[in-house]
C-alpha cells in the first residue's frame, strides 16, 4: 500500500527533462482537471438555466405553483405541480414496493443460491432488463400489460374494495396508476438487484462459514450474516431505484391517461406524473407552457437530486467504513 | 400419519445431535429457498414477455421497405412507410453524443485516477458524477431546451439531441473508464517513471493502452444506454416525418422517438410500425451490448496471463 500512495502523490521524480515535456505535462493536467470541472459546471448549469427559463412562466402564473392541481399554462396561465408531484411520488412508491422484495430475492439467488457456474450468466440476464429501452417498456405496457390487468383489477376492486388503494367506482382497470407502477417496478428492478448483489457478495465469508459451522441452515446463515451486513446497501439501492422511477418518462407517458387530480385509487384510470406531463404536454406548449414544463422539470430535478444524494451518502459512508475496517 | 413421528424419532436416534435440524427450521429454509427462486422467475417473466412480443409483433413489418423508407407522405391510416429517417437520425445523434462525452468522460476519469490525489475537488467530482447518473433523462432534455434552444436561440436539431444525450452518457463513461484505469497495475506506472518517462506520457503510452479494451467496452455500454433514450430527444430534435441527413440543420427524427410517436397513435397500422421500430431499436441496442461483451470477453484471458 505504501508504495502505491507514494507514486500517486509524488508522481514521476525526474523533472529535469526538456521543457517540451513539461509543456505536455501541464497541458495534460490542465485538460483532465478541466474535464472534471466541466462536469461540475454542467451540473450547476442545469440548475441555473432551468431556473432562468422557468421564472417568466412562474411570474405569469395566476395560481399557486405548489398547491394548484390543474395544468392550464397555455390557455388560462394557471398551473400547479400538486397533482403531478403526487402522481410521481405515488407511482414511484408502488414501483418500489413491488420491485424491492423481488430484487432482493434475485440478488440472494445470484449471490447465494444459484449454482456458481450459472450465477454470472443469470446475473447478465437480469442486467438485460436494464438494456431494454424505456419506450419499448411503454409500448409493452400499453399493448400487453394494460389489457392483461383489467380482470385482476376488477377482481381486486370487487373483493378488496374496502381497502382504500383498491377502492373506486365506475371504470376499473385500463390505464391506471397500478399499470404504470408495475412497468416502473420492472425498470428499476435491475439496478436494485445489481447493487444488492454486489453488497451481498461482499458479506464477510468468515461470518457466513461460522454460521454454517454452528449448524445454521442456509436461510439462518443469510439472516444472521448476510442481511445485516447488506441492509445499508439495499436501502441505498432502493433509493437509487426510487430516483430512477421518479424520473422515468416515456414508459409512463404512454401508459398514464394524463388526468390532473389527487386520488389513491390506483385501479381507476386516474394517473399522471411530472415527467409524463412534460413528454405529453411539450408538443402543444406555447412559450408560457414551455416555461411551465421547465419549472416542473426543475422540481423533478431537485427531488431526484435529493434522493440520489442521500442514497450516495449512505453508500459512500459504507465504503469508508468498510475500508477502515479492512 | 402416526408412523411418521416414530420414524423421525428413529432417525434422530441414529443422527448425532449436531446434525439434527428441527422440522420447522428445515421448512423455513425450504420456504425461503422457494421464495428466492420465485423472485428470480418473476424477474425473468417480463423480460421474456417483452422480447417475445417485440419479436413476434415486430417481424410483421420488418422488411426492406421499413428500413429504407421514411414516413414522408404516409397518411394517418396507411400501412406503408418506414423508419429510415429515424434510424439515420439515431445513428448520427449517438455518434455525435459519443464524440462529445467520450473525451470529457475519459479525461475526467484520468483526473480522478491519476491527478486527483483524492483531494477535495476530486471527491466533489466523484460525488457529482454519481449524482449525475441519477439525473432524469427528461431533465437533460429540458436543460438543452432551456440553454441551447431558448437561451442561445438555436433551432431544434439532431445536434441539440446529441448534446442532451451526451449529458446522460458522460457519467457512465467516467465511471467505467475510472474503473478500468484503476485496474492498471501500479507496477507498470512505476516502471515507466523509473525509466524517466514523464507522467503524461506514461498515461498516454502505458496506462491508456493497457486499459483500452476495457474503456471501449464501457463506452459501448454507455452508447447502448443512450441509444434507447426518448425523453431528451422529444424536446431537442422535435418531430419530422422526412429524411434529414444533416444533424446541424432542422428537426431530425430518432428511432426511440419514432416508436413513441407511432405507439401514441390510435391506428393498428401505426402500432405495427411501433413494434417494428421497437424491434429495430432492441436489435441495435443488443448488438452494441453484445459487441461490448465480446470485447470484454476477448480481453479477459489476457488478464489471467
Index terms:
heterodimer, A: 326 residues, mainly alpha, MetI-like fold, two-stranded antiparallel sheet, 11 helices, 1% strand, flat, disordered N terminus, B: 305 residues, 12 helices
| Tally of structural domains of chain B | 1
**CATH homologous superfamily designation of chain B:** MetI-like
Average of pLDDT of chain A = 86
CATH C-level name of chain B: Mainly Alpha
Helix content of chain B: over 70%
Structure, described:
- The complex is a heterodimer of chains A (326) and B (305).
- Chain A is an all-alpha fold and 326 residues long.
- Chain A has a single domain, classed as Orthogonal Bundle (MetI-like fold).
- Helix content of chain A is 75%, strand content 1%.
- Chain A is built from 11 helices and 2 strands.
- Chain A has a two-stranded antiparallel sheet.
- In chain A, helix 2 packs across helix 11 (287-325), helix 5 crosses helix 6 (177-202) and helix 7 (205-213) runs antiparallel to helix 8 (218-247).
- The radius of gyration of chain A is 25 Å and the shape is flat.
- By secondary structure, chain B is mainly α.
- Chain B has one domain (85-304): MetI-like fold.
- In chain B, 75% of the residues lie in helices and 0% in strands.
- Chain B has 12 helices and no strands.
- In chain B, helix 8 packs antiparallel against helix 9 (199-227).
- The longest helix of chain B has 37 residues, at 268-304.
- The model of chain B is unreliable at 1-13 (pLDDT under 50).
- The interface between A and B is large, with 103 and 106 residues.
